[in-house]
Amino acid sequence: MADPRPDRRTRLMIGIAQVLLVTAAAALWAAARLPWVIVRSFDGLGPPASVTLTGAAWSTALRPVALLLLATAAAALAVRGWPLRMLAVLAAGASLAVGYLAVSLWAVPDVAARAADLAHVPLLTLVGSERRYAGAAAALAAAVCTVAAAAVLMRSASASAAKYAAPALRRSMAGRDDAEMSERMIWDALDQGRDPTDHVSEPGAPQDHDSNTEGR
Q1: In whole angstroms, what is the distance from residue 147 CA to residue 69 CA?
Q2: Where are the domains of the chain?
Q3: 99 CB-side CA count, 13 A
Q4: CB-based contacts of 208: which residues, under 8 Å, 6+ apart?
Q5: What does the record list as coiled-coil region(s) (predicted)?
Q6: CA distance 156 to 153
Q7: Residue 27 CB: number of other CB atoms within 10 A?
Q8: In a structure prediction context, what are the per-residue pLDDT tens digits for the chain, which is 216 residues long?
Q9: At what angle do helices 82-107 and 5-33 cross, to 10 degrees?
Q10: CATH code of domain 5-163
Q11: Considering only CA atoms, which of 92, 63, 208 is closest in space to residue 150?
C-alpha cells in the first residue's frame, strides 16, 4: 500500500499556494481602487483642478491579473505534474509584471507627463503631480505572495511527480532483478553441466524432481 503522507503533503502545499494566490488577487483588486497619482492643473480661466488616478487608471493590467490569479488558484486543484508546473511558471510571470508596475512608481524620476496623458490634462496647464504609495505597496505585496505561491506550486508538482514515479521505478528494478536472477540460474546450470531447458514445463504441469529414478 502506498504511503498516504505524500498525498496529504501535496494537498497541503497546494492549499497554501491557493491561499497565497487569493491573497495576492485581493491585494491587486485593492491596489486597482487605491489612488496612485494625483495631477494638479490650472488653465488660468478657472480654479485649480486636480485629478486622481487610481491603480486601474494607472495600469489597466491590475484587475485582469487579479482574475488570472484567481483562475490559477482554482486550476491548481485539477492538475498535477507538468500542467501544475506550467501554472507555477504563469504565476511567476504575473508576479514579475505586477512587481515591475509597483516598483516603477518609485523608480521613475518623473510621472507627471504620463499622469497628465492618462488624466487628459494638457501639459501647458500642468502644475504638478503627487504620488501615493499605498496602492503600489499593495501591488508589491501581491507580487511577493504570487512568487511565493509559484514556488510552492512548483515544489508540490515535483513531490507529486516523485510519488507517481516511485512505483514504476520499483517495478523496473524488480523486473531487472528477475532478469538477472534468470540469467544467473542459466549460467549456474551450464557450469554444472546441465541443460537449463530440461526443467522448463508448461504452467500447471507436474514437475519431475528426480528424473534419474525412473525405471528403478
Answers
A1: 11
A2: 5-163
A3: 12
A4: 214
A5: none
A6: 5
A7: 25
A8: 444 444 777 888 889 999 999 999 999 999 999 999 999 999 888 788 899 999 999 988 999 999 999 999 998 888 777 888 888 898 899 899 999 989 988 888 888 889 999 998 888 888 888 999 999 999 999 999 999 999 998 888 776 554 554 444 445 555 555 555 566 676 666 666 666 566 544 444 454 444 444 444
A9: 30
A10: 1.20.140
A11: 92
Phi-psi region of 193 (alpha: psi -120 to 50; beta: other; left: phi over 0): left
Residue with cell 557450469: 191
Pick from 119, 105, 70, 108: nearest CA to 90: 70
- Alpha carbon separation from 105 to 130, 138, 140, 145, 181 (Å, rounded): 11, 12, 11, 19, 69
> What DSSP string runs through 89-147?
HHHHHHHHHHHHHHHHHHH-S--HHHHHHHHT--GGGEEEEEE--HHHHHHHHHHHHHH
Residue whose C-alpha cell is 491603480: 55
Q: Decide: 55 and 29 in contact? Cβ < 8 Å.
A: no
Report in angstroms the alpha-carbon separations of 133 from 20, 33, 54, 121: 22, 13, 11, 22
**Strand pairing of 35-41 and 126-131?**
antiparallel
CB atoms under 10 Å from CB of 170, counted, come to 10
